[in-house]
């Protein structure tokens, strides 16, 4: 039987644990020929915590692990029995391989390395609170969001007058 790509549904946030689990199964059962490749595509995002920017990784396909397997029933049962694995995508007892077109898109997206982008995005008309700088503790309405520069143009109400302000997105927080 030939290797085919399968999508394995996992609990969100457990993708890397499932990937390691599959690799352990293959090693423990001495069946390295059954696994050609395993993918958990990620992207870098910029998070702001306590006023500090931090680059972290986030899964592109939350809740999914993609594996190029020579799948038989014993390997299927071993993977299904892993903690945090929900199921293979497809029919209940017969996983459906991904199409070559889908696999090409997933691999292209996984290999595409872009500059880290903000984890939080802003929409025009949204109200935010400024957390740093001369306008700290003022609320403003988002007029424009430049994701590439990480800047917002806000209208901040100061002494009853609307004042346009350009500020870094890391200096504001969403009002919930």
UniProtKB/TrEMBL annotation:
Residues 2-110 form the NusG-like N-terminal domain. Keywords: Transcription, Transcription antitermination, Transcription regulation, Transcription termination. It comes from the Bacteria. Residues 121-148 form the KOW domain. The keyword Transcription regulation applies. The keyword Transcription applies. One of its GO terms (cellular component) is cytosol. Participates in transcription elongation, termination and antitermination. Belongs to the NusG family. This is Transcription termination/antitermination protein NusG.
